[in-house]
Amino acid sequence: MRTLLLSAALILPAAAFAASSDDSSEPATTETTTECTDGMVWSDDAQACVAPEDSSMNDDRRYRAVRELAHAGRYDDALRVLAAMSDPQDDRVLTYLGFIHRQQGETELGFAYYRKAIAANPDNLLARSYMGQGFVDEGRLQEAYAQLVEIRTRGGAGGWPEVALRRAIETGVTTSY
Fold it and tell me: Under CATH, to which class is 16-171 assigned?
């Protein structure tokens, strides 16, 4: 019985993280990437593609659209949505500015945004994972591993940010989102 309780205690924190975080899995494909073009995003309220500045969009909806657009490689569209966010210093905004710039080959600028995101929110596991993956791309495995340890220390064991970075360190292959 003790073994069972100990096992559950070790597994549940990771499961809780994975279930509660919008960043724990690949973003779902929606009409934002299947229907909308030119930086427009899908509004469930309007049942149409709208400008990211539209009043039917709040920052959480915009953020989901940014994740989806970035995952699809539509970086210019994602940047337009990021520009519509109410707080340009929000750690989620900084994380995706870092991701987009790193994906576009501006690695140092990407790292600068990740550092700002982590300074604003040290528990931003996604920024830590993306930064760690950038370190893997550059062969800086010790720095990547340091981010992996931080992710685990901050309760992220088993979640997408931890798994993606661990796999990148093990294989040398980083994710495209």
Answer: mainly alpha
The tens-digit pLDDT sequence of the chain (177 residues) is 333 333 333 333 333 333 233 455 777 899 999 999 999 999 999 999 999 999 889 999 999 999 999 989 999 999 999 999 999 999 999 999 999 999 999 999 999 999 999 999 999 999 999 999 999 999 999 999 999 999 999 999 999 999 999 999 999 998 765
Beta-carbon contacts of 65 under 8 Å, excluding residues fewer than 6 positions away, are 32, 41, 42, 52, 57, 78, 81
DSSP state of 123: T
CA pair distance 155, 174, nearest whole angstrom: 22
- Give the Cα separation of 136 and 130 in Å (integer): 10
Residues near 106 by Cβ (< 8 Å), separated by ≥ 6? none
Q: Domain extents for the chain?
A: 16-171
Q: Tokens 């909308």 correspond to what residue? A: 36
